[in-house]
Amino acid sequence: MGNARFSLQDDHGLFGVNWSSPARLDRLLANGGRAQEPAETLLNRLLDYQDEDDLYRLNSAEADAYRKAGLARPTNRPLTTPMELTRVMGWKAALDFLSPAEINDAISVDTVSMVNVNTASARVLLTLAGMDQEKVDRVMAFRKLQPFLTDVSFNQFLGRMQARRSP
Questions:
Q1: Among 139, 148, 109, 134, which residue's Cα sits nearest to residue 121?
Q2: What is the pLDDT of residues 80-107, one digit of tens each?
Q3: Positive or negative CA dihedral for 138, 144, 146, 152?
Q4: Which one, of 124, 60, 122, 131, lies nearest residue 90 by Cα?
Q5: How is this protein annotated for GO cellular component (predicted)?
Q6: pTM of the shown model
């Protein structure tokens, strides 16, 4: 309609905050260029924010800690939007290097455990093990020409696996 434009983003091209490992979260937060709280602490706080009980995980926070800090209490339900992460204790500071639009463009609260390397942003690709800016640039240039059809072809492109040879 008129000059309206829109785009669709595959959630598998985003950072799945509810299913990512502490190591991947560390790599995402490293994009901010400064030390943050440990990833395990942030992930435990996210889990406690969402679960229905008042039991604490290690270095985490429940309703009483939020009240003492002057924050809105946890919802005790799954997150509905990536921006809701900023309500979880410690996450606002951890993500302060991202604008609200960048949070929405990089993070998914759905149950996403794998990354679609054909739709992931550079920021998300950098969270994959062994990726650096040079490899990310190569991947992004190559996928404009043709998509990666398998994880084997992606790893071969990056030189992580040798091609199988016939006996």
A1: 139
A2: 999 999 999 999 999 999 999 999 988 9
A3: positive
A4: 60
A5: plasma membrane
A6: 0.77
